[in-house]
Design goal:
The protein is α/β, with parallel strands linked by helices. Helices cover 41% and strands 20% of the residues. It has three domains: 81 residues, Orthogonal Bundle (Arc Repressor Mutant, subunit A); 110 residues, D-Maltodextrin-Binding Protein, domain 2; 110 residues, 3-Layer(aba) Sandwich (D-Maltodextrin-Binding Protein, domain 2). The strands form three sheets. A five-stranded mixed β-sheet has the order 4-3-5-12-6. Strands 9-8-10-7-11 form a five-stranded mixed β-sheet.
């Protein structure tokens, strides 16, 4: 079969079908009827001489051939998107574009306020729509339904682009008058009541299982490797809420250090290094290959990288001065 016999729309169908794993949902996303989508799947099966999606007890699952083709098709679509991009440069000063970002609570409080300040300076008529991890799936990212996401990821679909914005360590926040504040050490840490702050993953979250150490995250995994376990009194998904709780009760919040910068001048709070080793975390910026070459998108990614680098440089300068 030669290229003239292949409808390039089929590649779009293929991409959406594999992400949705459902003909009806794929048809809804593309604005097609279900029969039209089913016909598209039949044509795809003929083109690739493979069933691509097969029905199982867990729903429609991709074949090995489909998994092999998926990143290649994404790359082809990205190249086509680049080819049809306008040749004119993006002018941020006159743009009215809305940039849609999924950000963890940590990224939203530590990075995005400064990003928005830069946007006001360079692109005053642009706007920012910030979503939570519960609002977005990997399929949304791959299809470009969000411009990018900022969070920590252990694994990602191969088709997505990733950039590391920074690394961060951990600090403990507590009231200055907390009885455990004086000569704070590992033993006192374990005697304390704690606020857990994290996110169980992307998509709609479920409640926390305190006995599932791996899903509790970095702090509790590090403790488990030491044969220890902390007493968690409150589970929250918001860094600011965790820190506020330490102001009101004799609780300790172990949080990524940059999130403590928002309250470093609070006289009633103490910010101390964690009394045991916790591996650093990375803040990632992730986006779809379908948006990789978009000129407005490139500008936005560069703004975020520049702001992240500025924050890191300021912290390094302050550390040297202090």
């Amino acid at each position: 079969m030669n290229l003239s016999n292949i409808d390039l729309n089929l590649l779009v169908y293929f991409s959406v079908l594999l992400r949705e794993g459902n003909v009806t949902k794929a048809a809804e996303h593309l604005g097609l009827s279900q029969p039209a989508m089913s016909n598209g799947l039949r044509r795809l099966r003929k083109v690739f001489n493979d069933p691509l999606l097969v029905r199982t007890s867990k729903g429609m699952m991709p074949t090995d051939k489909a998994k092999e083709l998926q990143p290649q098709v994404q790359n082809v679509l990205a190249q086509i998107e680049l080819f049809v991009q306008p040749t004119i440069e993006f002018d941020p000063s006159s743009s009215k574009r809305l940039f849609r970002v999924m950000a963890s609570d940590y990224a939203e409080t530590t990075l995005l306020p400064r990003v928005r300040t830069r946007m006001i300076e360079e692109a005053p008529d642009t706007s920012l729509d910030i979503l939570t991890p519960s609002d977005v799936t990997f399929q949304d990212i791959e299809l470009g339904n969000v411009d990018l996401v900022m969070n920590r990821f252990d694994s990602l679909p191969q088709s997505l682009h990733l950039s590391v914005l920074w690394k961060d360590d951990f600090s403990c926040v507590m009231r200055n008058d907390n009885p455990l504040r004086k000569d704070f050490d590992f033993d006192k840490y374990l005697k304390a009541n704690h606020v857990w702050v994290n996110k169980t993953g992307m998509g709609v979250a479920t409640g926390v299982n305190p006995d599932d150490i791996q899903k509790l995250g970095w702090v509790d995994i590090a403790l488990d490797e030491l044969g220890a376990k902390r007493k968690i009194a409150v589970f929250t998904r918001h860094y600011i809420s965790a820190i506020q709780l330490t102001q009101q009760q004799d609780l300790i919040a172990t949080v990524a250090t940059r999130s403590t910068h928002l309250v470093k001048h609070f006289e009633d709070l103490a910010i101390l290094p964690a009394p045991f080793a916790i591996p650093s975390i990375e803040l990632h910026m992730v986006w779809s290959p379908l948006l990789h070459h978009n000129i407005a998108h490139r500008w936005f990614r560069n703004v975020i990288r520049d702001v992240a680098n500025e924050i890191k440089a300021e912290e390094e300068a302050a550390a040297k001065a202090g």
